[in-house]
Amino acid sequence: MEDTVMRATLVNAEKFVGVANGALKMAARDVRVFYGESEALHGVDLDIYENEVLAFIGPSGCGKSTFLRCLNRMNDTIDGCRVTGRIELDGEDIYDRSLDVVLLRARVGMVFQKPNPFPKSIYENIAYGPRLHGLASGRAELDDIVERSLQRAGLWEEVKDRLEQPGTGLSGGQQQRLCIARAIAVSPEVILMDEPCSALDPIATAKVEQLITELSETYTIVIVTHNMQQAARVSRRTAFFHLGNLVEVDDTTKIFTSPSDGRTEDYITGRFG
Amino acid sequence: MHNDDASAPRTDPSTQRRLVERSLARRHGAEKRFRAAGLAAVFFGLGMVALLFASILAKGVPAFWQATVVTEVYFDPEIIKVDPRPVAQPGETPAQLHEREMAWQTQLTMANWNRIIENTLAAHLPEVTDARARARLRQLVTSGERFVLRDRVIADPALIGQRLTLKLLADANVDVWLKGNIDRSLPDSQQQLAPDVRAWADQLHERGVIQMKFNTTLFGNPDSRSSLASAGLAGAFVGSLFMMAIVILLAVPVGVASAVYLEEFAPRNRFTDLIEVNINNLAAVPSIIFGLLGAAVFINWFHMPLSAPIVGGLVLSLMTLPTVIIATRSTLQAIPPSIRQAALGIGASKVQMILHHVLPLALPGILTGAIIGVAQAIGETAPLLLIGMSAFVAAVPATPFDQSTALPVQIYLWQGNELRNFFEARTSAAIIVLLGLMLSLNALAIWLRKRFEKRW
Amino acid sequence: MNNWVLICVLLMLMALAYQFGLARSRSVAGQGAARMHSRPGYYGLLVALWCGLPALAVFLLWTLFEPGIIRSVVLNQLPPDLAGLQGNELEVLLRRIEQIASGFGVSDQPAAFELAAAERMRSLQNTGRLAMIASMAVLCVAGLVWTLRRIDPQLRARNQVESVFQALLVISSTIAILTTIGIVLSMVGEALHFFRFVNPAEFFFGTVWNPRFSTTGAADQGQFGLLPLLWGTLMVSIIALLVAVPAGLMTAVYMAEYAPAWLRAVAKPVIEVLAGVPTIVYGFFALITVGPFFSVLGQTVGIDIRATSALTAGVVMGIMIIPFVSSLSDDIITQVPRAMRDGSLGLGATKSETVRKVVLPAALPGIVGAFLLAASRAIGETMIVVLAAGNSPILHANPFEAVSTVTVTIVNQLTGDTDFASPQSLVAFALGLTLFVITLSLNIVALYIVRKYREQYE
């Protein structure tokens, strides 16, 4: 089994290498997802490189979010969902028994479609992850993490005087940046974003997009988006999913100017979607 | 925006990994303990259900069989000396006939029935000849049996002089002794029965004269205090049925009507808000308060009869009303507005829409709610105690206006009986009957729901 | 004529009236001048209602008031020397008169005045009966004829029938209000009555409960201090909550977050069975199983535990409210949005960390509401405490000893012979009022909190 997968990695390697300027961070081979009996994802092979922004696009129900949730095993929380195939993070199989899902999620963070701050203070929202994982050894260090995370998410100036107020009291865009700050407070290596701007207005969206670009200097970012302009603006590479298949993955510019698959072209030119 | 690398909150991956891994053992331990606590809570609940039912069943099931003397009884005309039964004579008022009939019955009652029972038992134990010992033989049979024999003769005077094989209930203490519900090694001073009576009981039991027979008394007789072995549930059961009927006739229609009004007609204003808050609170008012209401209003102001199922039924109806209203309202709320719009759209009036479309669809839900409410009501004790239903009633009520008890009240009365050895089992048996009644009602509700449930 | 027969006749007449109305409306429609306003059935119903309802009202009022009127007329005509008769003797006399009047007779020789009174009563009853039937018949026919003649295309029969229907609905929904008013009035009325015997301050702040018996003497001999009872109630309720809250909450958490579907399908209904068991059964269970168990347990550990004690009653009551707490908490926990859980799990929290640090804090207001409702349940619970708490209204802090509660005392004071004149009975209403106010305020606060909580996630 392992051998076949490795061979597949070698054979297919060139097909997936886009602009491979970073080292290989995550690799998916023949990933299939089942909800009960029905197969929702039909064997996806995909490589993700360090410090890149990779966008997943495709019509709704195409499996892009499902695949994203495989990358930090969030699908485990759904009853009746089963994943086969192999996903590696730095060469380790993340579905291997020896790998702790807690550690995996600490390394591969996630931001969700709808801002979901906890009904706690802004400070507590950020401090939640570091506290759980024991990342800070004292109050001062925790304060430091909170401040730096908020700064990194560009929220510090807006909230530094009201850290004790509930996170749910912020505006939608602020809430989403709070959630991003919450994710980076854990110091993940990869951040998964599931349509992070779909619930936001254009101005808030612009802020979050700018943030994504900045964060990509430090983190590997995988973003699912409905919005092709967004994919074009923020990502270096784009993967197009359709009906549970990964149709193609390539440089974003290539995908949007001369895709190699007809379905991709049909989608980006608006024939369906 | 801040952007300089110094502010990047990046613990480097290996440090992060080391710190997280260090916390894992502790956290997984906590996870396991938490999960175990949850499972323990679930099993505590399940265990309590099991314990409750097991202890009631273990105590109560034996009470469905009762020690019974199966024997031939001779209605000796030498002992039962009575005039012929009076018949109506011309020119006599019914009151006078009644008077003579009563006199005849008194005469019959005065006959020495104890002697008949003594003779009956002595036939099986011919070695008992001493007069005092013979008198003690009577302790084997419960005292109420002499009235049972008398009533047989009242019903059919031709029995006098005949021999009949009958089942006489053994005394409660004999039942306790034979079932081993009393410690057999206790000294005589702590035993309820004299040593020779105990020996006779064992002897007759061995010979099959005293048998464990299915306890029809429990279902056929009303309560009794003088003859404990013949105490039964019939009075309480009928009382409970009367109350159940009253609750069904009052609480269910009124409850459904108010729910329909509140859900379909009532304008949103302060008055309807008030009704709404009021109903929610009424549902949580302790049942005993309804008992106080019944005592003050029905008994003290309206002078309704004490201990009557009609009053109990009224009190329980008021108590059940909020349950029915709440259940009906939630059923009505679950019916999609599209149905209503469709009916109104083709020109039905609001009343027509409700009667022809909404109520038929809501019926299973309404019935389920109503049955659950009724089941709750018949298990209720406290309010009934306050309207005098804890009085001892030795008759089966014929109408809802007669004195009566109810099943749960009967349980309350029996658990307090001094003859604990006997009544612990009897009470458990009564509980089994009550639970059986409630479970069948609930099963009916579940069946209705499963059979007719619609998902929108 | 028997009352039941009368009702049946009335119903048959109504059915007949329905047919008349139907036929009449059809024939009016057949003349074809204009389109009928309503369908024929509504004309039929309208006629039936007008035919039956007034007669029914007369019947009800008549049967309600006639016996009282006849009785007072008969009493007025009795010889003056009997006018002073009171209570039982009067009842016996009336009973005899009724028996003579009904023809059943009495066994001895009736006195002349008795015969006269019976004669009077019989004639009154007969006349009354005839008058009632006659007036019912007149109303029936009048209603029938009048409504039949009104039938024409403009008559809005459906609307009239429907407003009768609606009126019935409105009357029904006021019954709930009337019940509350009845509760408040009777409690307050009788409690005020009680406070004429006993100073309210003595009642609410008294530390001794010793009401004596109403037969042994005047009211001032008894002491009606509420505090021992309130303390007992509090002790039992706290023990009950200490059992029910952890068990119920953990059950709800396990069911909502961990349990596999099959376990949920089995365990949930089984645990809810606990909620359907009558409280008297719990009382008995406490008395014969749990109490002796604690007593033996106490002996082995070396503590003196009474079989009937605050502990026994509290623990069993706790078991009773487990399903109450767990199903309410379950509702509330499952209302916490999934996004909240995902947010926490996505950061690498374990399931229990998510539950303890995110789900439960988010659900806290709702859960507090559920606890208050459970507390109000515990405070108002009666039968378990009557059987298992030992009934000892003394202020002490030992949960292993017997206590008494407000509800137990209500039962004790009002069972047996109930006369509404002695403070010993009336105190039950003062206690009931206290209980009602406490549980009502708990409920109002709890329902308010739960409602606010629901709105938060809707």
From TrEMBL, chain B:
Residues 237-443 form the ABC transmembrane type-1 domain. Its main location: membrane. It is found in: Cell inner membrane; Cell membrane. The chain crosses the membrane at residues 36-58, 233-262, 282-302, 358-379, 429-448. Keywords: Cell membrane, Membrane, Transmembrane, Transmembrane helix, Transport. Pfam families: BPD_transp_1, DUF3333. CDD domains: TM_PBP2 (cd06261). GO terms for cellular component: plasma membrane. GO terms for molecular function: phosphate transmembrane transporter activity. It comes from the Bacteria. One of its GO terms (biological process) is phosphate ion transmembrane transport. PROSITE patterns: ABC_TM1. This is Phosphate transport system permease protein PstA. It comes from Pseudothauera rhizosphaerae. The lineage of its organism: Bacteria, Pseudomonadati, Pseudomonadota, Betaproteobacteria, Rhodocyclales. The gene is pstA.
From TrEMBL, chain C:
InterPro entries: MetI-like, MetI-like_sf, Phosphate_PstC, PstC_N. Signal peptide: none annotated. One of its GO terms (molecular function) is phosphate transmembrane transporter activity. Residues 230-446 form the ABC transmembrane type-1 domain. It comes from the Bacteria. It is a multi-pass membrane protein. It is found in: Cell inner membrane; Cell membrane. GO terms for cellular component: plasma membrane. NCBIfam families: phosphate_pstC. Part of the binding-protein-dependent transport system for phosphate; probably responsible for the translocation of the substrate across the membrane. This is Phosphate transport system permease protein.
